[in-house]
Amino acid sequence: MKCKSGFEKISGPVCPICGVPNDNLCMDCRYWETTEYAGLLQSGTSFYYYNKPMKDYLHQYKFLQDVVLAEVFASELHNKLSKTKAVIVPIPMHPIKMRERTFSQVDCMLEAAKLDYAHYLTKSEQTQGKKTKKERITSQNLFLWNGRPVPKEILLVDDLYTTGTTIRHAAKELKRAGATEISFFTLIRS
Is there a smaller number of Cβ atoms within 10 Å at the N or the C end of the chain? Predict the structure, then answer.
């Protein structure tokens, strides 16, 4: 597919927790491991860097509501995630954002990839998009458990990993609800 030619895949050695290119534990994960979020994540993976073509793709997909773009990564996502024994749990959208955007970009990507998933979280009213790195990292209570029995093994899925706050907040809430092993996958790593 021609539009994918500008996307840059992540390769080589990566941080064992967040998957950012690095020979060891990255600076961000070293920080997170000194906080109340220490030990929440077993591992994480991302496919692509957040370069200009990927920013354009994500803008077109999420904000211009070009939902057909969910198909662009369907086969890659299916190949990567279909073999997991963990239950796939997408990061949820807040209902107000869902009404504005009209679709959940993560759910649509998983559906295009023909992957089963389940929701165990609801999103609080806080948004991360326009916050600084410091504001993101110090955010509180981004998610609430929805009360459904939580599986022991979970693979959190989101479109974009920026600071790790969203993933860690979701993981913390799922651990409180009974999950024991949590990893994550994001399409893009900022």
Answer: N
